[in-house]
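note to self: dont lose this again. the chain is below, predicted strucutre after it. 204 aa total, dont forget to put it in the shared folder this time
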Amino acid sequence: MRKLVIIVLPILMFVSLGIAITLNIFQNPNGSIVENLLIGIFSSSFVVFLIELIGLLRDKSRYSYFQGQYIRKKIYTKVPGVIGKRSDIDCNTTYQDETSRFEAENVCNVIKIIKQHGENFTGTAFYIEGTQEIQIFLDPLNPSHGHGTYQYSSKFDKYMKNMPDFGELHVFRDMINTKDIFVYYKNITPSGFIEGYEVWSKNK
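---
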């Protein structure tokens, strides 16, 4: 919508200004009223155009880093009931590295993220179970963090392809290595138990 406004407003501005100049040149008897009206349209359109242009440039500088192609470097799944090796840490969960299993299954590790508008992004990712469609909204106050959802658009037979499978996502930009994105995921249905995180690295 913002891009459409930025395209349409300059046309309106210059058409109104051109008519006003034409009326002035030919000294139309009723021209002064029309000229004032057209100049008012031009002025207000110009102000709105500037506001929208500044907003577009601001959004681009804040959110555009997230768009692009990523490689999944690591994927971890949370395993309940496993005690950590360090005795000074009291916990009953840990994360299991699933990266080698994904490599053995020849799962495509390319994730493509596309900017829709503002802070809204969509993407596609591939897993052992099938293909996920992703939607992410970056936080306007802290664009290095975002939240969203995923849902499998296709699943292999052995993974209950007829059951809806979706969950929530949280993304965090690595502030030191800014090409890396940490993605936390948690399933909602059908199991509600699967959760973990991934590390994506931007390569395009």
